[in-house]
Amino acid sequence: ATPTALMVGTGRGAQLGILIKGPEVLETTRAVDTVVLDKTGTVTTGRMALVAVHTADGVTEEQALRLAGALEHASEHPIARAVAAAATDRVGELPAVAGFANVPGLGVRGTVDGHTVTAGRQALLDEQRQPLPPALAEAKAAAERAGRTAVAVGWDGAARAVLEVADAVKPTSAEAIADLRSLGLRPVLLTGDNELVALAVAAEVGIPAEDVIAEVLPEDKVATVRRLQAEGRSVAMVGDGVNDAAALAQADLGLAMGTGTDAAIEAGDLTLVRGDLRAAGDAIRLSRRTLATIK
Ligand code: ADP
Ligand code: MG
User: Fold this and answer.
1) Within 10 A of 52 (CB to CB), how many other CB atoms are there?
2) pTM here?
């Protein structure tokens, strides 16, 4: 490949809203056959909103929101921001948290108003021996069937509330994924979120269930990319979160959402400046065209 053609391709990328770290990136792009897509913030907007609160007997919504909101206030996760914002709206100023701990891909923990509170995936509450009562388990299952993320909240030895958080698929995601497929690439959805939520999002954007990998811990996202590579695939990864950075670095081609975290942008080879997934197909097309003019 001549340096000049690659430089021209890089310039054209900038016009398309694609920032390319170095001209050599375009050469890697050509071989890609699989595109691994992070769900939250990549395929979906990541702008979550609290849409329902379910509580156990004897617990008020205000109480649940006060404890969960105080805890989530200390986290930057999109789910946490939604919970903290709704809690502030409903109960006003939130109490302080002591001993805050963020458990990546699972949730948060800390002491609020003298209670040890945990919020996040049920797996995290199970570790704390905080089982979910049957009525709340049913509310959680119904929320997940509807494609919403259920945040379990526990204190004093039991799960006592389920918060339903909703995220919307970006309007351009389905078109972007169809475009990747038309370029001969295989889209795969990868997420730490619950399997039912992942399947609901996948169905909305046209990814079959067999290409959905859910409930993956942040450190296992990179292992998933490695496994696909070991199967002989050349993998592009698209992500936005701190928890995507290692997978973006491991992938043959890392595409970071420009709307995402600095960690993701630093780890990627390309940045999709506008956070529009359609730029992923544009990047592949650009590199193929650039390399074709060189030959
Ligand atoms: P994704 O891979 O979709 O970007 P993450 O790996 O960040 O998702 O998180 C996986 C799951 O862990 C979330 O869907 C949520 O259920 C739970 N979780 C993570 N952080 C939090 C938090 N601060 N509060 C509540 N739940 C959380
Ligand atoms: Mg994400």
Assistant:
1) 15
2) 0.85
